[in-house]
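User: Could you go from structure to sequence for me? I need the amino acid at each position, not a summary. Structure tokens:
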């Protein structure tokens, strides 16, 4: 791509990194919100299918420069599209019904449209009166809340770790004469060991979240 008076591949590596960071910062907000609401998961089998098609296309073009995989696949794709509803006649009827608006969902929309219109008018009127207030998403606040939850949970578990450990030590030393104190102290030490493992894991989660936000130019 061209940048100012030159091409990007002609710039220095530091300048290219700076341009990349600027682009990530511009797209960071949209990408983070989109990935959080509906994460995109690429099916692993698609990789093998696409690789097979590319291999066939490459072999065909090597043997014959006029080879075109799309032209060969076109009749089969048309047949699959025609038979997607069971048979070509049913598919044709559904297409005609869609164009004429005679499908069941079209009839349902016609019947329910007045009710929906009245509902929208009622909402608009209540908004004008101040009964409703629009809620606007603040991505910065959402990121800060997410990080705060991790930090607070880690702090609570660290406090609970100290409390449980102190109780276990107290049972061993001061309450050694109490019946069942040894078993109870072992249980408390076991719970303390579990919490001791969770605290660094939670710290790691916070660091990972900060690194992820910083990667796209977003700081919580």
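Assistant: Here is the amino acid at each position, in order:
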């Amino acid at each position: 791509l061209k940048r100012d008076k030159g091409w990007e591949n002609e710039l220095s590596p530091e300048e290219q990194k700076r341009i990349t960071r600027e682009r990530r910062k511009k797209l960071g907000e949209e990408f983070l919100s989109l990935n959080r609401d509906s994460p995109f998961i690429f099916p692993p089998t698609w990789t093998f299918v696409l690789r097979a098609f590319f291999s066939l296309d490459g072999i065909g073009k090597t043997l014959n420069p006029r080879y075109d995989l799309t032209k060969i696949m076109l009749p089969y794709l048309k047949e699959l599209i025609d038979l997607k509803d069971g048979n070509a006649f049913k598919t044709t009827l559904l297409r005609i019904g869609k164009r004429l608006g005679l499908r069941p969902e079209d009839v349902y929309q016609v019947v329910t449209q007045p009710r929906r219109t009245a509902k929208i008018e009622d909402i608009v009127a209540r908004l004008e009166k101040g009964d409703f207030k629009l809620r606007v998403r603040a991505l910065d606040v959402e990121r800060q809340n997410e990080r705060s939850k991790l930090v607070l949970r880690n702090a609570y578990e660290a406090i609970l770790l100290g409390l449980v450990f102190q109780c276990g030590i107290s049972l061993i030393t001061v309450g050694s004469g109490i019946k069942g104190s040894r078993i109870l102290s072992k249980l408390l030490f076991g719970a303390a060991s579990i919490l001791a493992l969770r605290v660094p894991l939670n710290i790691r989660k916070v660091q990972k979240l900060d690194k992820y936000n910083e990667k796209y130019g977003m700081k919580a």
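One structural detail worth keeping in mind: The two ends are 31 Å apart (CA to CA).
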